[in-house]
Amino acid sequence: MTDHADRLDERHHDRRRDTGVELALHQSYQHLPADHQRLLGLLALHPGQDFDA
After folding, report:
1. pTM score of the predicted model
2. What is the pLDDT of residues 24-51, one digit of tens each?
3. Residue 51 contacts residue 43 (beta carbons within 8 Å)
4. Fewer CB within 10 Å, N- or C-terminus of the chain?
């Protein structure tokens, strides 16, 4: 269990290194209309690497 927790900790730490990118995306997202925010959220759930109309 400790090993698993350590790995999760590492992943979280690695993700935090990109705070500049995360901040930029967050700021852009906040300025989108609500329907576009919803669409972006739904697209994030798509399991594949690409999609079409």
Report:
1. 0.51
2. 888 888 999 999 999 988 888 888 888 7
3. yes
4. C
